[in-house]
Structure formats: structure tokens, C-alpha cells
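@channel sequence for tomorrow's demo:
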Amino acid sequence: MKIPYLKKKPELKSCHDVTWEDNYSWIHQKNILEVLRDKNKLLPEVKDYLEEENKYTDYHLKNTKPLQKKLFDEIKGRIKLDDESLLYKDHTYEYWTKTTKTGNYSIKLRKKINSDLVEEIWNGDKEKENLGVEYFGVGDLEVSNNDKYLGYSLDTKGSEYYTISIRNIETNKIITKEISETSGGITFSLDDKFIFYSKLDENHRARKIYRHEIGNFKNQDQLIFEEKNEAFTVSIGLSSDEKYYFINTSDHNTSEQYYFNVDEKNPSPKLIMKREKGILYSVSSWDGKFYNHTNKNAEDFKIDISNSLTLQEWKTFIPPRDEVLIGGLTFLKDWIIRSETSNALDKLFVRNITSDLEEELIFSNENIYVPGISLVQRDRNTNKLYLGYSSPKTPSRVYLYDLHNKSKKLVKEQEIPSGHNPENYIVERVEYKSHDGRLVPLTITRHKKTKIDGSANILLYGYGSYGSSMSPNFSSTRLSLIDRDIIWATAHIRGGMEKGMKWWKEGKLTNKKNTFEDYIFAAKYLINNKYSSKGKIIGMGGSAGGLLMGAVVNQAPELFLGIVMAVPFVDSLTTNLDHSLPLTVGEFDEFGNAQDNKEHFDYIFSYAPYNNIKKMDYPHILITTSLSDNRVLFDEPAKFTAKLREYKTDNNLLLLKTEMNAGHGGKSGRDGAIEEIAIDYAFALKISEKI
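C-alpha cells (generated this afternoon):
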């Protein structure tokens, strides 16, 4: 089939006395944010190109169609389709969700406490059908405190502009005006007369908090908070003790918080602490005390305590520790539960408020697992909570745990209907030296029959941005590769926070290349230690992980058999220079500000995947993107693909697949998500010659 061709329209760009040519910049429309909302505004020439690329991808993956179907059935076969969540007890009702064999979306159910009469208050599949839309994204689903109203927010394009609606549960009637262009979150006031929400500005940034009076169809909503800094975005939530609303405003690196009492007739947010560049803080309240989770004078965070917010006297509650990330707090009447992370492993601790004694909650004999807790009920006067864990080989298990007498009862176990034996899998945690001698954690999961003699393929997964840590949890989907002799390895590279705040700082701004080096050295470690061989590794990453893929494939293509890049941030210089795009300004502290800082410009230019494509052989590459994605615009992977076609000197596959009705997270619905995984895995198995 003829290779798709995107017309060149050369444009000279310049910044800081540097000039470069961009042959494909023309596909970025000035009204791009309008295109995200209405695909009919897309340039016909660009639409034709994307559709040609889709046909080209379909053609080259044609021989994988039976495999895609097999993978789809296999992955779906590991999911208990007719499943129910654990109950959460509110004041009057118990709430839970369920999924069905035929449905793609969840159903929200409730029953009165001590009653057996079950009410269905939300059915995603029916809602989608009533709207007649292809994409159906639920932002939030909240029930009012009096249990009478259901608030929900929907995105029907994938562009993450959510419209909030509120309906009377009993009559199913909409009881107030629709609120459009929100970030999706809904917070009911305790008296259920109002909701609070954040509104998106013209650049898709949440910088205003409004209060909407339920029942109001005409009047403007009351603005209660506005963030003036374009880099900051805002959110609002209720405190654990339900006495305050906290407004949080932050970029990735700096935060500021405001509060007001729940019974204020005219909310007047009061500042807790003035923002300081590089200082993150988050205050919560419980039992007349305030707890501040902050990195001020504590690189990896600490928790301070004060008896008042008007007369603040902060004392250390949980002290900082080097390269141990101190997490936040969960409160019960007599207990405080907290988390911490070190060396890419999470731990949970519980403190008895009366005795002040703290101990670690250990509930698995595995060395590598991910623990978690959730509340059983809204009333915090309880000793019980849900305690769960999973590991790369063990499906999720949740216990009802009594903190007082330490008894536990298994209440939910992730069922794998098609069968699963954890003993068939080996999980290893190793540390390898990166280019500068830093030890980087690497989690390796393989089938016990897979030989460690260099013959196996490896899927090497990485992310490494925004301080986002990759947890070694269970994924039933990955078994489709692991069972076919492909080892799954997750590199806990710098840019995440697996080893604390320092780990993040060493992988951002003008340290960003550490992220790429860490990943390349992970590949080299796996080759040197016979897990795989040169040219047998498949790299995988999405979004900022797609930036990682683009950078490493330009730098060390010979290590890889193939690369899978999902919604990849590959034209990072162009995006960084455009301050009108939704995420750019808020990410100056993550990637730098190329427009106003020459050092940042030079550094980003030196690694930006699109700008560093070379005339050389590249491995097989599959790139996926979505037309309505406002986080990483579709034109980045489209330009990257077109330029790569022009430069690469090999005959390996280069495929671009664009979802024409989806956003950053891909297709909506359970089946849609599985279909996308099946395509990625079919590509990996095709190039590994395992079809």
C-alpha cells in the first residue's frame, strides 16, 4: 500500500537567535481548541492525511486481526464482567457500583441501611444511549448529602470540557441549569442548596471556583475564588471533619490554600499561607487540629500540626526523612493512617491517637506489592476500614480490617474468570547503575518458563515526569504478553517520585535527560544480564512517557525492536513556545520556559523528539493519538510521523493510528479500552514474530 504523504509547507522559525525549519507546522491550526470541541473545523487536508494513515495502519496490521480478536477475548476473559464494588455506608444509604456482562459503563446502586430494596440511580450504558454519542466520559458522579439529588458531569467529545447536570433521583428530572465548560468536579454544600465547581477558561485551565444555587435556571453563578496566575489551576473539596471547604491552587511545583467554614452564608475564602516558589503544602483538619503536608524545609515532605489557622503555630508531627516520600493522612475517630514511599515501594502506617503509638500495617509476605486503604463509611467513628493490596503477580485482595483488635476478613478478591496461578510468575526487583552512578529501581515480571538466556523479548515500560510514580501493581492485561514469553519490565526512572522529591528534581527542567539516560541504561542492564538481547526490546510509554520514547529512539535506536507511543508529547519545543496551549504555562517548572529563557530553549531543543529526528535506521514504531486530545494535541504525533517518514533509512513499520472520536485517555468504555490494548499488544507480538 502507498505510504501516506503529508505535504511540506516550509516555515522558518526563530527564537534566541536560533533559526530552524519546520515543514509541517501548518497543520497546527490557530483555532485548535475549537477543533477539539468540533472536529468539523479540522482542515480537510489534515483530516484526509489522518484517515490515510489510519488505512495504512489497518493494512499493515491486517494479518493481526485474528490475534487482536484473540487478545481482546483473552483480556476480557480475565475481567469479572458482572462485578460489584464494596459497599460504602453514608448516613441513610449504602452505595456501591456494579458492571454487567453486556455493559461498557458502570451502574450506581444504593439501598437504605437495614433494607434489601435496591435502587439503580445511574446506568452509564443507558445514559450514553439516550444521548446518542460515540464518546462518553464521566467526570464525576456525586449524591447530595440529603440523598435526594444526583450530580454528574459528562464529556461527550474526549476534549475534557465537562458539563454538569443535577437531577432529582426520585423523579429523574433535571432540577437546575446545565453548567458547561467545567473541569468536571462536583462538591455539594452540606445543606444541599448549592454546588461548588471550577470553570475552564479559554485556554482550558481551571482558574475560577463558582457556587451554583440548585434550582437556578437563569441567574449567573457566584464567583467565590479566582486565580490570577495563568500557570495555576484551582480545585475545591470538603475537609475530613466536614467543617471547612479547602480551595487549592497550584502548578506542579508551588501551591497555595484557602479555607472557609461550611456554614458561611456568603463564602469568603481566607488564605492559609502565602505561596512560595517551590513550596507545596496541603492542610487538612481533624478533631480541632490542622495538619499540613508540606515540603517546606523537608525535601521529601513532612507533616506539621497546629491548633489554629488564625494563630498558626506549626509543630512537627511526622518528621522528614531523606529519600523517603512522606504521604498524606486519612483520619478515623481514634486513628490516623498515613503512607510513605521509598525505593519505589509504598508502606502504610497506623497511629493510635490516644496512645500516640504508630506501627506499620503489613499484610503480605511478598516483597513487592502495592498497599491501599479506603473508608468503609462516612461516619469516622469506627475502627474498621478496607485494606487492600496487589502485586505484579497477585490480583487485588481487600480485607475488612479492625484497627483495634487487628482482625481481618477477606471481603473482595479480584477474580480472574479464565484462571490465574500467581505461582506461574516470577517478580524481581533489581537496582542498576545509570550513567551517573545513581541506582535506579527496576521491576521485572516474567513467566517461570521464560528463559534468561538473552532469547526473550522484553516490553520495557517507562514514564518519568511530573513526580508521577509507577506502582508495581497487578495488571491482568499484561499477562497476554508475559504468557507469550515477553518479559514485562517497569523502569522507575527519575522524573517520578519513587525515591522522593529529589528523584523528581533530578529528572526535570535541565536535568530532564537523566530520565532518558535512566531508561536507556535499564535497557542495557536487561541486555547485559541476559533478560533480552540488543534489538529485542520493545519500548512503551504514553503522553510524557511518549516524550521519553521519542527521545530514546532518537538516541539509541539500535537497542530496540520496536516502540509503542501513546498520545506522545513529541513536539515538545513547539508546544513549550506556545503559551496559549492548555498545559504549557503550568509546566514551566517541569520542562522549562523556552520562550523566555535561552538556557531552557537550548536544552529542550537538544532533546525534543521532533527536532532531533536523524537520517538513520529506526525500529518498528506504532504511534496512537486522539483527535480531541487537549493535553497532547494530535498534530504532535502527526508531524513526528511525517518527518520520521522523510528521514528514516529503514523499511521497518511506522504506523500512526488516530482515534477520530476520543481524547487523551483513548476510547471510552470497557470494550474500547480493551480494543486499544489489543492493538498495541498485537503490534508487539507481530514484530516479535509471535503471531
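heads up for whoever presents: The radius of gyration is 25 Å.
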